[in-house]
Amino acid sequence: MSREDVLAIRTYLLAQPPISQPQPRNILPFPFNQRWTVALWKLANLHTGSFTPDRNRTAAWNRGAYLVEVLGHCGACHTPRNATFGMDEDHKLAGGTAGIWQAFNITSDKIAGVGGWSNEELSRFLKTGAVPGKAYAGGPMAETVMNSLQHLSDDDIQAIVAYLRDVPAQSGDEKQPRFSWGNAATVDGDAGTEGMTQGSGTAAGDDLYRSLCSTCHGANGGGSSDGSYPSLTRNSTPGAATPEDVAMTILEGVKAGDVAGRKSMAAFGGWLDDGQVAALANYVTARFGNPDVSVTAADIRQMRAGSTTGQTIMVLAAQSLVACAAVLMLGLLLLLARRLRRRTSSVRLMSAHRDRR
């Protein structure tokens, strides 16, 4: 960050009213609760130095690079992690995670990324979190729009778009763009209240959708006529190659903050059990999005606990790695201590022998 921006943030923070807040207990699992490991992480991943504008690029591109790479730190969520849990720079902005939520590929790839979006659509999404026919922000991205991006100037929004357009395209496993799944909804009368739900999904999922979702999203998933409640067809969330964002939307809802008229969505995690959440999520993806995606009640239980199965495996692998490293280090220390004792004993014996002579 520039010195001016650092001082500006400091000035703002010092101007806020003081709040007495007890320090929360560290609940990170081992080895992530060990602060000394941060030093090892820094050796592998910390890049020091300030942002340097590229003189061969336009002012808009450099401003966009500064916003994306520095102030916005978009890669913290949108870039996958490497074996040391640092950002994998070989796959920059190719998609990552924000906790359990999936942060999508935002490179210029036309299938896996946002290459099929127009500049106007990208700008609109950053400013409002909603582009009918493409995507609606949820989870941490909705909160980012609500608390941060909506307040940027139009010039800054366009600078971000200019920079993202120049990030090298990164392909993925997607068969088609996330927003291309699902047929356009056809509902007679008000999309929010009339029509009969049709299509795939279990009876339980169908019943849950009718009772909990159809009033806002429409019986056939078309959303509300004024756009305040999103369509579920042609929507990147149900059309994603993984089910986490649909499931987390059901569990936690969406905090939209009424940005550009978007309404927030209630969380159903306290009302539905794991099997019901899984049934509803599978119904939504099968009926309106990617039919190849599904989730189980066990997956939902894992998400409620704060992680995905893959993340749990990574934690267990890290724990095993650290445990093995600790055992190896202990073994080396014991071996070194044994050799030192032998050397000390030998020196003493030689000294005693000389004394006797």
UniProtKB/TrEMBL annotation:
GO molecular-function term, one example from the UniProt record: heme binding
One cellular component (GO) term of this entry: plasma membrane
PROSITE patterns: CYTC (PS51007)
Main location: membrane
Keywords from the named record: Cell membrane, Heme, Iron, Membrane, Metal-binding, Repeat, Signal, Transmembrane, Transmembrane helix
Subcellular location: Cell membrane
Bias-annotated ranges (Polar residues): 226-239
Residues spanning the membrane: 313-336
Residue segments, region Disordered: 220-241
Top-level taxon: Bacteria
Residue stretches making up the Cytochrome c domain: 59-168, 200-288
Protein name: Cytochrome c
Native source organism of the sequence: Mesorhizobium ciceri
